[in-house]
Design a protein that fits this description.
By secondary structure, this protein is mainly alpha-helical. The protein is built from 20 helices and five strands. It has a five-stranded parallel sheet, sandwiched between helices. Helix 14 crosses helix 16 and helix 15 runs antiparallel to helix 16. The protein is globular. It binds flavin-adenine dinucleotide.
């Protein structure tokens, strides 16, 4: 009997446009697909909301593969142990995967490749989840980019990304005898007591078919308003594709070409399509930063912020996490995040800025909260955006640019539709200026009322600017 090919899927949980899967099928061998829940020694382990997504995405993947008679094997533990074991158990002649660039994952892959090859198995890997390898896009001097605009220009100069691949003829690759698999339920990826994700299912449809439907719906509907509407959280003008891209249920190539094709057919979509493609390039830029700077979730890219006098105030942090800061746009965003696992990009910027500048709490606290609560929590995009908002990134909104959360609400949610959905107890009459009180006292006083602002905007602004001015010059 022909020895099988093992396809190790990671952040590429899809059948279409999957070079590793297509090449494995082209080899003519029967296929076994493997997913390893790596809880140490690899990429950053997923947070709670992403684990919810992962569970459902794996259910969908298993179902899609089973339709072709291709088994999905689940294993938990260090990939350095599990991948060589499974390859040996099934006698795989070849192992295929798509490249990944998170530092922990890339290091694990190098070790696994060496071990598999030493055991006489061939290893093939291709580019699937980014439009370009973060190590291939470089400045004229051969260095990595730290600024978005020249990065995006250099990436675009490489030409139009390749066209997406179709689903390979998987029925020809079915029927392999699979080694033992864990049961997905035994991984306990879903919350139970309490089930804080109970509203997620009405919001999302994880898996490749759901991702395709979302992309089609966006291209046929929201794209038209994307350029002008993408900053308004009450409008359905954004794609909401980020979790699907995060788990690779859809590829950037598929997104790029669907939107490009729509614009080619209808010139009125040009401006919106261009804007959307530039956002896809922000994702690429985040990965470029992570792959080249390595520790962006823990270290300030601008080292001068290492001496910034962050405050640690547990009450304020909890108020921010729970959406009880007394600033309605911030609170609406934080509650949307809790109930749906997502937050609109404009609101992410305002809520993140509020934590870092108004409350002067270290951006890493916010990054960790988002990591745990976002279904799209991404090892590159999350810290890169936090550093951008905090002003600690290389190409960041400068720290002295401080969003006024009240003006942001008036501008981007002028009729209050978004805020009222998440903060029904708020009305424009809940006026600022009741002064700052301690959190426990406030909780008592509030009695279901919308809270007074946790901090006065003008005072907070001055405090942040004074702290910035106190940073020692010449650092970073
Ligand atoms: P669209 O506007 O439809 O954009 C299309 C795609 O482009 C997105 O799905 C996403 O993959 C990519 N994209 C858009 N904006 C950005 C951006 N600023 N940076 C990187 N990629 C982008 N995005 C994540 O995918 N994961 C995260 O963990 C994450 N954390 C963030 C944290 C903060 C503090 C901020 C300000 C932004 C963060 N973002 C993150 C970026 C952005 O908010 C989301 O990608 C976007 O809101 C997803 O909604 P969408 O799919 O409708 O986006």
């Amino acid at each position: 009997m022909t020895s099988p090919a093992l396809v190790w899927l990671r952040n590429d949980l899809r059948l279409a446009d999957n070079p590793a899967l297509s090449e494995a099928v082209a080899s003519g061998r029967p296929i076994i697909v493997l997913y390893v829940l790596e809880e140490s020694g690899g990429p950053r382990p997923p947070g709670a909301a992403a684990r919810w997504w992962l569970h459902h995405s794996l259910v969908a993947l298993g179902r899609d593969l089973a339709a072709f008679g291709v088994p999905l094997v689940l294993r938990r533990g260090a990939a350095r142990v599990q991948v060589p074991h499974v390859a040996a158990d099934c006698g795989a002649a070849a192992v295929y995967w798509n490249l990944r660039y998170e530092p922990g994952g890339a290091a694990a892959d190098a070790d696994i490749r060496a071990e598999l090859q030493a055991a006489g198995r061939s290893v093939e890997s291709g580019l699937a989840n980014l439009l370009a390898s973060p190590h291939e896009v470089a400045t004229g001097a051969g260095r990595s980019f730290r600024v978005y605009t020249p990065f995006a220009k250099a990436l675009r100069a490489r030409g139009t990304p390749r066209h997406p691949l179709p689903i390979p003829p998987l029925s020809r690759a079915g029927g392999a005898v699979a080694p033992e698999s864990d049961g997905l339920e035994d991984w306990s990826l879903l919350p139970t007591k309490p089930n804080w994700a109970k509203d997620f299912a009405g919001e999302w449809n994880p898996g490749e078919p759901g991702a395709n439907l979302r992309l089609d719906t966006f291209v046929e509907g929201g794209l038209r308003d994307y350029r002008d509407g993408r900053d308004f959280p009450a409008l359905a003008a954004v794609s909401r594709l980020s979790p699907a891209l995060r788990f690779g249920e859809i590829s950037p190539y598929q997104s790029w070409h669907s939107v490009g094709l729509a614009a080619a057919a209808d010139g009125r979509l040009d401006g919106s399509a261009e804007k959307f493609l530039s956002e896809i390039l922000w994702r690429e830029f985040s990965w470029h930063l992570l792959a080249n700077e390595l520790d962006i979730s823990t270290a300030n890219i601008q080292r001068k912020f290492d001496s910034f006098p962050w405050r640690y105030d547990a009450d304020d942090l909890v108020r921010w996490q729970q959406g009880r800061t007394g600033y309605p746009l911030v609170d609406a965003g934080m509650r949307e995040l809790w109930h749906t696992g997502a937050m609109h990009n404009r609101v992410r910027m305002v809520a993140a800025s509020f934590l870092v500048k108004h409350l002067m709490i270290d951006w890493r606290e916010g990054e960790r909260w988002f990591w745990d609560t976002l279904v799209d929590a991404d090892e590159a995009s999350n810290p890169a955006n936090w550093q951008w908002v905090a002003g600690t990134g290389a190409d960041a909104a400068p720290y002295f640019r401080i969003f006024n959360p009240t003006l942001q609400r008036e501008k981007f949610d002028p009729d209050g539709r978004y805020v009222r959905r998440w903060v029904p107890e708020w009305s424009p009459e809940c006026v600022a200026g009741k002064g700052r009180r301690s959190a426990p006292l406030l909780a008592e006083l509030e009695g279901g009322q919308y809270p007074a602002p946790v901090v006065d905007h003008d005072m907070a602004r001055r405090r942040a600017l004074d702290a910035l001015a106190g940073l020692r010059p010449g650092e970073g």
